[in-house]
Design goal:
The chain contains two helices and nine strands, in the order E-E-E-E-E-E-E-E-E-H-H. The protein is α+β, with helices and mostly antiparallel strands. The longest helix is centred in the last third of the chain and has 21 residues, at 112-132. The radius of gyration is 16 Å and the shape is globular. F-type ATPases have 2 components, CF(1) - the catalytic core - and CF(0) - the membrane proton channel. CF(1) has five subunits: alpha(3), beta(3), gamma(1), delta(1), epsilon(1). CF(0) has three main subunits: a, b and c.
């Protein structure tokens, strides 16, 4: 059994998780990363995706995040999400609204850089939609 460490998942609305866990898989901007106890210190941005938490009791919890930052130190990990919700509580209409807004942002972009950023975000959202919502 892996050693436990402190993990917190915080959104502007509330503290979703604050407990001892064995591991956390984070959708980092540069790719998924697994955090375990005594991880090297790092701060990274997170992209829209699913955070998978393996609890110290052996259970698994999944949360959808819509961007933010992860602060990882040897003693723990704090994920500050722009928005977060348990996968089981995902609102299909809210996700559809976010996708529509991203499409509009891409269409209304003033330059190539803004368009590219909006299209990347749209791609992340549609990938997320396919990963968590049944057809």
């Amino acid at each position: 059994m892996a050693e436990a460490f402190k993990f917190e998942l915080v959104s502007p609305e509330r503290l979703l998780v604050s407990e001892q866990v064995e591991s956390v898989v984070i959708p980092g901007a540069e790719g998924e990363m697994t955090v375990m106890a005594h991880h090297a210190p790092v701060m990274t941005t997170i992209k829209p995706g699913v955070v998978t938490v393996k609890t110290a009791s052996g259970g698994e919890e999944r949360y959808v995040v819509f961007g933010g930052f992860a602060d990882i130190v040897p003693a723990g990990c704090t994920l500050l999400a722009e928005s977060a919700v348990a996968v089981k509580d995902v609102d299909r209409a809210d996700l559809a609204r976010r996708i529509q807004e991203a499409k509009e942002d891409a269409a209304d972009a003033k330059d190539d850089q803004a368009r590219s950023k909006a299209e990347q975000f749209l791609s992340q959202l549609t990938t997320l939609e396919g990963a968590i919502l049944p057809a």
